[in-house]
Amino acid sequence: MLLPSPLTSLLAVLQLTSAVQGTSGNVEHHHAQLLDTYDFVIAGGGTAGLTVADRLTEAFPDKSVLVVEYGEVEYAPGVFDPPKTAWGATGGLASSWVLSSTPSPEFNNNTATVVVGKVVGGSSAVNGMFFDRGSRHDYDTWNRLQDDDRSAKPGKGAIDWSWNGIYPFFKKSATFTPPPAAVVSMYNYTWDMSAFGNSTPIYASLPPFLWGDHYISRNAWKEMGIWMSQECADGNKEGLCWTPISEHPTTARRSYSGLAHYADVIAKRPNYHLLVKHQVARVVYSKGNTKSGPPVVEVRPLDGSQLFNVSAKNEVILSTGVFGTPAVLQRSGIGPAAFLESAKIPLLTVPQDSKPLPFYPLPSEMLNETFTAQATAAFNETPAQGPYTLAMSSSSIWVPLPNISVTYSTIIDDIRRLANASDPSSLHLPPAYGLEPTLVAGYRAQLLALADLLANPRSPSLESAFATGTHASAVLLHPLSRGTARLNLTHPFELPILDYRSASNPIDMALHVAHTRYLRRMVHTASMQALGAVEVDPGEARQTDAELAAFVRQTAIQSYMHPCCTAAMLPRARGGVVGADLKVHGAAGLRVVDMSVLPMLPGAHLSWTAYAVGEKVSFHVCFVKMALTCGQAADIIIRERSKGKGE
């Protein structure tokens, strides 16, 4: 995680693919087609950026909004759509960047890979479509980390990032549709409609299909004593959960920001302009005075033509993503002072069966041409049916550390001792952190918050999502290690250089080993043993902590495609980049709205959080700053306030 420090100076330095049916309106290709000045300029047309653009243009029809997007408008297929035949394989999605980190010494110099959407709709157009929210304890921790950093007194503009503060915007941001009664009866799906608000056409649904061996894992988890949760989207995220997929409930096509917050609304919004195939190079303040905002936006056409400027009357909003936003800030002279001045960031495979499984169908059936043809035909029915409606997964377990290891308190004690260590060099941070005391202070606060989260018997430490019953993956939800995302000085307009520094904090490896020990217990449940299951990896021969750690170092996938926190929402004294209002510290008229602002990773896949953050900040801008309401957002807040919740 990169937490830029105070401002310093750096160098002074659209063709549209009409692939989304029904898209029309103010899609611009060239500088000459733009207005002279816009009320709001949004850098990045991704998950959160388009959410903000939609809400602002809806609330203020007399105010102009320009979105500058690197990619194009494209059709975004689902993660498992025809003609694919290998369930779980990657590729064939909308345009994206594929980034690799520098080697991680603690993982045998392996690199981490992360995929970022390069398309209108951003990463919501290329993600795995697993659509969940974090635990209430995650968001309460965000609020705690803000300390006394508030943009105004409560009730007069303060932004509450606790669970109660963000929950209404989770509800507003998507529409959940229950499956048909026959599907519910077949799979025993459960949900709680009170957790959903259903006012926005970002669709969440449970698939009408599960692989035949899905219940192997479900039964094993039950036998291990894991709680069967009716609903995990209500903030109480613990146990075995059914998790929606971000797909349309009838067509089973991917539901993403590029549709709901752009294609579905652009034709009726003359004040909503989208400039594609252009990149925000940097933001520029007049004479370097950051109190003179909003800044001018310097835009770089991808066709190689001359850079040009766009002005904003009200605000510039950066929403270029976890890696794009720090690059824009650093190119603008906002970032780690020492770096700018020199200008010179486990997966476990457990059971496998020793005899043929008495289940049908399995993912291997996709290799059968007849089966695949039938699956394709089912997908094109109305409503869509069959395996292509499944995406990657609709089930997972979320387990707190106290339920994983009887010696969990040792790990918690180690974290707290580390947080209070007198020598900053013992914190296992990137070397550059030592040059900025505020970054060290912020990390100490995060460690204490992480200790409390991991000690909480209702706050998950482990995720294991599954769609078949023959393997389990161990996902570490709250890592302690911190890396960097630094501007590529050789190619400054490309995405930054990533140094994940995975497991550079040794406590992370202790957590990985604890998770591995826990998951391997499923092999010995009655359900697994009845099928003759044996542990393939790491294998029964590996029993000691050192042996399991060696297995993790060799086999772990260092990125689970949910990066965050590169422009963190923390007080400036804690190394933060933005305040609780998401405005960049000390930079007038400049706000960041994407997953770079998270102060800590929640225990969740991030797309739903991105929508909620976009909705929440849009409401704040409309309802508080502009003294107007943003559509149905006001009604939601009034209802929540009447219940003693929300802001």
From TrEMBL:
<dbReference type="Pfam" id="PF05199">
    <property type="entry name" value="GMC_oxred_C"/>
</dbReference>
<feature type="signal peptide">
    <location>
        <begin position="1"/>
        <end position="22"/>
    </location>
</feature>
<keyword id="KW-0285">Flavoprotein</keyword>
<feature type="active site" description="Proton donor">
    <location>
        <position position="562"/>
    </location>
</feature>
<dbReference type="InterPro" id="IPR012132">
    <property type="entry name" value="GMC_OxRdtase"/>
</dbReference>
<keyword id="KW-0732">Signal</keyword>
<feature type="binding site">
    <location>
        <position position="280"/>
    </location>
    <ligand>
        <name>FAD</name>
    </ligand>
</feature>
<feature type="binding site">
    <location>
        <position position="560"/>
    </location>
    <ligand>
        <name>substrate</name>
    </ligand>
</feature>
<dbReference type="InterPro" id="IPR036188">
    <property type="entry name" value="FAD/NAD-bd_sf"/>
</dbReference>
<dbReference type="GO" id="GO:0044550">
    <property type="term" value="P:secondary metabolite biosynthetic process"/>
</dbReference>
<protein>
    <recommendedName>
        <fullName>Glucose-methanol-choline oxidoreductase N-terminal domain-containing protein</fullName>
    </recommendedName>
</protein>
<feature type="domain" description="Glucose-methanol-choline oxidoreductase N-terminal">
    <location>
        <begin position="117"/>
        <end position="140"/>
    </location>
</feature>
<comment type="similarity">
    <text>Belongs to the GMC oxidoreductase family.</text>
</comment>
<keyword id="KW-0274">FAD</keyword>
<dbReference type="GO" id="GO:0016614">
    <property type="term" value="F:oxidoreductase activity, acting on CH-OH group of donors"/>
</dbReference>
<dbReference type="GO" id="GO:0050660">
    <property type="term" value="F:flavin adenine dinucleotide binding"/>
</dbReference>
<dbReference type="InterPro" id="IPR000172">
    <property type="entry name" value="GMC_OxRdtase_N"/>
</dbReference>
<feature type="binding site">
    <location>
        <position position="119"/>
    </location>
    <ligand>
        <name>FAD</name>
    </ligand>
</feature>
<dbReference type="Pfam" id="PF00732">
    <property type="entry name" value="GMC_oxred_N"/>
</dbReference>
<feature type="active site" description="Proton acceptor">
    <location>
        <position position="605"/>
    </location>
</feature>
<dbReference type="InterPro" id="IPR007867">
    <property type="entry name" value="GMC_OxRtase_C"/>
</dbReference>
